[in-house]
Amino acid sequence: MASASLQFFAFILALFGVFGDITATLLPNWKVNADVGSNIITAITQMQGLWMDCTWYSTGMFSCTLKYSVLSLPIYIQAARTTMVLSCILSAFGICITTVGMKCTKLGGDTDSKSHACFAGGVCFILAGIFGLVPTSWYTREIIASFLDQTIPESSKHEPGGAVYTGFISAGFLLIAGVIFCTSCFKKQQGAWIYPPKQHHFPSTEQESDAGYNLKDYV
User: Fold this and answer.
1) Are 177 and 11 contacting, i.e. CB atoms less than 8 angstroms apart?
2) Measuring CA to CA, which residue among 46, 44, 74, 48 is closest to residue 58?
3) What stretches pass through the bilayer (predicted)?
4) Structure confidence by residue, pLDDT tens digits, 10-28
């Protein structure tokens, strides 16, 4: 019962991680203009994301421009696009697989099949968390390096936006969920290896009767 409750808790964490992963991938505020120097009195908020750049004016106007050219983008944005999409796909696969493998569901067949499905779903969550953690860390590193660069004017400096923090938290949720699913299945299999089921050997009465019959023939 405790293992089933723990798996359900991990499944809820994975759901939050999937929704946060998709949200972080689509949000345009991976980095925003920093409020330093002369930018403090500006009436324009500029945001840059993986797929579009947006500008928010103090009058309420909001405009976005899609990034059509892939090759013209910096390498860290191209890598972030690829890894975030892979993270979303793997986490969605993990949700489908763990739904079958969880103990509280009636899908997946016998106990061994459900255990293997649960382990596979946990691996998908761990890979999705890694794929989500790498681009957010790399993107944050580029923003900080650009912010600390003295040769870049203050009007061109940026800070990490809400999408980066959402990606970090979602990756953490997916990693925790994946570890819980994998360890819950591993403990069960390890217990089966340490304490294997005892096999009872019963003498075959049929062989004894046949042996007695053969001896009688020779008397």
Assistant:
1) yes
2) 44
3) 75-97, 117-139, 163-186
4) 999 999 999 999 999 999 9
